[in-house]
Design goal:
Heat-shock protein Hsp90; outer membrane lipoprotein receptor (LolB), chain A; 13 strands; signal
Length: 274
């Protein structure tokens, strides 16, 4: 999983600062969200069932979504905390149960307190939020789709699938790609296989170590279906899912309104290298 998925970050970047008026900030956010939600001409035909199934247009009309996450790999705790995100991904915050927080204000990542352990901070800041936001980012600028018709996920399951890749120069790892499977009965994403080339990894090497996230137990949140359990697996395009490696449980899912401090640089914080 990629530590910093810059090409998957939104094209609407807002810097929310303590000096700005909260009402003005909210209006700017809502104006930008409406632009994203109504730009239907950019929707690739393969993604239409998923956009409808996930109520993407309605989701993007909201301001902030938040949830508690309990993530484990190999029986070990990986992340426990509460994640907040602008619905267009322009601001992200993770408040961890150990008392530390990570904040992305649209330009820079901050960790508070400044003496907190910063190991994996860049990774945590963007990876888990992206897996949540995937259904709403399928047609971001620079995305390219190839309809793969149906692919095998297991001996008993085949689903419609498409390959998501990126135009040259998109973000910091344009050689990454994803294979997204959806349930044709409801348009909800079932699984996303992916490779990671960030950091200069060769694409062939990355393909040999591909993984997948599966979305389970969708819950209705104000009319928006959201998966409340994720599982992570070994994966390849030919045979589908392999051994399960990890699991995340999400609870206390809800929409909230934007206030001007949630995605601002915290006090006693240090910047994390991008």
């Amino acid at each position: 999983m990629k530590a910093y998925i810059f090409h998957l970050l939104p094209f609407v970047m807002l810097l929310i600062s303590c000096n700005e008026n909260a009402k003005e900030n909210n209006k700017k956010v809502m104006d930008q969200l409406q632009k994203v939600a109504t730009k239907k001409s950019d929707i690739h035909p393969f993604t239409e069932p998923m956009n409808e199934g996930h109520q993407t247009e309605e989701f993007l009309k909201q301001q902030v979504f938040q949830f508690d996450i309990d993530l484990n790999f190999g029986g070990n705790d990986r992340l426990d905390g509460t994640l907040y995100t602008n619905t267009n991904s322009s601001g992200i915050r993770i408040d961890k149960v150990d008392g530390s927080s990570l904040v992305f204000d649209g330009k820079q990542v901050y960790l508070t307190p400044a003496d907190a352990n910063d190991k994996g901070a860049r990774f945590d800041m963007f990876t888990w939020q992206y897996f949540f936001a995937l259904p709403y980012k399928l047609n971001d600028p620079g995305t390219q789709w190839e309809d793969l018709e149906t692919l095998k996920l297991s001996d008993s399951l085949e689903l419609p699938a498409g390959r998501l890749s990126f135009k040259s120069g998109t973000g910091d790892a344009p050689d990454d790609w994803y294979v997204v499977y959806y349930d044709p009965e409801n348009g909800l994403i079932h699984t996303a296989g992916y490779i990671v080339t960030f950091g200069g990894k060769d694409p062939e090497e990355a393909e040999a170590n591909a993984h997948a996230i599966c979305y389970h137990d969708y819950q209705d949140v104000e009319g928006i279906p959201v998966a409340t359990r994720w599982t992570f697996h070994n994966w390849n395009k030919e045979s589908g899912l392999g051994e399960q490696l990890g699991e995340a449980k999400l609870k206390n899912l809800k929409f909230s309104t934007l206030h001007d401090s949630i995605f601002s640089k915290p006090k006693n914080a240090k910047a994390i290298n991008m």
